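Dear support,

I submitted the protein below through the web form. The confirmation email said the job was done, but the results page showed an empty box. After a refresh the structure appeared. I'm attaching both so you can tell me whether what I see now is the final result or a partial one.
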Amino acid sequence: MSWKGTSTRSVIFDLFGITTNTVMLAATGQHVGKTTMSLGVFNGLTQKFGQGKVAYCKPLGQRYREIALGDGTFHKVDQDVEVMRNQFKLTGAWEDMSPVVFPPGFTRKVIDGDIQTHDLLNRIKDAFTTLASTADFTLLEGSGHMGVGSIVNLNNAQVAGALGVDVVIIAEGGLGRSFDQLALNKALLEKHGARLRGVILNKVCPTSHTPADAHLLPPN
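What the results page shows now:
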């Protein structure tokens, strides 16, 4: 499919008349609980929409293993995709759920011109279209912080902006460090035209829960 000018969600609506319900769960960095949160959110969405009505995609992957496809070829699949697929018995194509991964040597190939970034982005758009046009809700999971992939000009914020997907960022509990990290990630989202829909504070110490609420949350 040819992608030019507008967001993927807009194209899906214009071509098929389908309004896609979707959000990207991202994070301020590694080990803040994004995948665990994705498991919980996906479970909640399944309870709301029904089994088989919710799709999952991790557009950019890093840690992966090769999965044998039906045609005898192998596809690099992010490990989190395998976890989600097995946990919820998902039936989407592997190549749609994990369209792009960054294996060793990938960055050098992009810099040398052997791999074109726009081809990778089109692959993500096609995968998203396949999943989102047939599901009641599509959950996307980011890879690390919003800037992961910037070296090849294809980061989480660019993907969210290109797809037209709102983002919810997961950050570790705290004040100074959490706020600073959120500010950096939010700025990158704004640069690429993606909207920050919300923030989830994870790993909040119970004894500091009230102070964190008072400083990070808007007044009622």
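Response: this is the final, complete result; the empty box was a page-load delay. The CA atoms of residues 98 and 179 lie 30 Å apart.
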